[in-house]
Q: What sequence folds into this?
């Protein structure tokens, strides 16, 4: 069964098997959504066309709107704060009491300055805060949570909220917990950067310090007495064009975790085609330290892939 309808867009008759149809086709439906209205500008009295959603627009452009607002009758009001006269449109429903935002803000502060000086109840020192924060009692979070102000002050033994609870890191390693592994990696990156910047002090009591190179015209950081001897040798060697301390980082794997290996010196000779990457270690360390062996293996692989020569210098090369 079909029903007869009249299209609301094109006014044509059409039949359809469904009830309550308004448009004969999808095109008429789309055209019905593109509605426009014609308004008359209140300033210049000229007609202008706008989309239906802007049907309440009163002016054809901003220039006419400005002229209309400029012609509105105004009255003079006295500002409650600065007592100065200012004008505002007379037809406004809510009349302004203050001439500017600054006067309004100052009135809310009751004439006080933008900031106020307070005295900390914990350290008794003066501190400056904005007027809206005038009810503060402490100068910092540290003062607010120290001593008797701390919620856990005096709570020892069984009264402490941490009583009987083991630290979260207890029994966990970087191999069993992702957070510990992430923390270890972060510490490794920090130490590596400190070594490169010459800010890391070796914990084993090695002789560290700075060596000024006339050949390089800069200071070089040595992390052991062996490196200092190597610097002096390179400084006096006529075949050496340049040399740098802690030149690069090489990632390597040891005991299932990734570490960062920083070789000692990168040397450029005038009688050799490739640069030489040098690791300086005592002979006895090479024999017993498995981690050093892993570093040397990583250094060899890196040099093979980057057209470098890898060398390990011991007491023999340093002539000790």
A:
């Amino acid at each position: 069964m079909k029903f007869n309808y009249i299209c609301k867009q094109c006014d044509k008759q059409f039949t359809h098997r469904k009830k309550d149809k308004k448009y004969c086709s999808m095109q008429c439906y789309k055209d019905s959504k593109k509605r426009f209205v014609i308004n008359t500008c209140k300033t210049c009295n000229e007609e202008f066309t706008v989309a239906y959603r802007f049907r309440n627009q009163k002016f054809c452009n901003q220039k006419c709107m400005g002229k209309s607002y400029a012609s509105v009758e105004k009255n003079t009001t006295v500002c409650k704060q600065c007592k100065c006269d200012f004008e505002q449109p007379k037809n406004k429903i809510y009349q302004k009491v203050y001439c500017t935002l600054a006067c309004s803000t100052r009135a809310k502060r009751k004439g006080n300055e933008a900031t106020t000086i307070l005295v900390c109840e914990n350290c008794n020192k003066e501190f400056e805060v904005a007027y809206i924060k005038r009810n503060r009692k402490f100068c910092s979070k540290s003062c607010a949570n120290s001593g008797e102000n701390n919620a856990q002050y005096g709570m020892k033994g069984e009264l402490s909220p941490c009583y009987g609870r083991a630290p979260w890191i207890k029994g966990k390693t970087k191999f069993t917990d992702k957070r510990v592994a992430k923390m270890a990696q972060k510490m490794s990156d920090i130490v590596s950067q400190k070594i490169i910047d010459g800010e890391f002090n070796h914990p084993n009591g090695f002789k560290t310090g700075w060596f000024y190179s006339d050949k390089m015209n800069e200071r070089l950081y040595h992390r052991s007495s062996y490196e200092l001897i190597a610097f002096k040798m390179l400084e006096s060697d006529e075949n050496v064009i340049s040399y740098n301390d802690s030149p690069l980082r090489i990632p390597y794997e040891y005991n299932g975790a990734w570490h960062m290996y920083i070789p000692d010196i990168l040397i450029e000779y005038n009688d050799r085609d490739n640069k030489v990457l040098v690791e300086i270690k005592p002979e006895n360390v090479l024999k017993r330290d498995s981690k050093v062996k892993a570093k040397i293996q990583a250094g060899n692989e890196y040099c093979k892939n980057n057209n470098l020569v890898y060398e390990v210098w011991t007491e023999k090369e340093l002539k000790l």
Summary: The chain has four domains: 3-66, 74-108, 115-144, 178-318. The two ends are 110 Å apart (CA to CA). The chain has nine helices and 16 strands. The mean pLDDT is 85.
